[in-house]
Amino acid sequence: MSPRAARWVRAAGLLLARLFLGGLFVYASLHKLADPVSFSRIVYGYKILPPWAINLTAIVLPGVELAAGALLLAGLLRRGAALAVSLSLLVFICALAFNLARGLDFDCGCFSFARTGPGAALDLLVRDVVFLALSCWVLLSPECPCSADRLLGRDA
Q1: Residue 74's domain spans which residues?
Q2: Are the C-beta atoms of 101 and 76 separated by less than 8 Å?
């Protein structure tokens, strides 16, 4: 493959990764924003946070997911949005791994309110590690094609 073709493939892959993660995080935020009470029960079900942090997390996390996802979709503040996505995924991975190690049956709360068990948690853990790799690629790439940042003459 020629260097020019390799650059094009890399740019197309980066664009697809950015759009995929952006859409994923916007979608993931929607049911949480629509039903924060149910989402707070899911946060409680992880049995990790102190009681005072449960409702705060259930209110703040979906907003962060929505904002980061929308920014990635638009290609605005790419690195900041990708950092927020990467940190969120890292927290999700740690929470899943912690509950997987404890053998707890819990509701993931990722995209719907469907129950998951320890077997499904391992699949979710692997999936989130793949998503984290994609978000780190978007975060660490020196430039991002087809983005609002690029049109504005910056690559942030």
Answers
A1: 3-146
A2: no
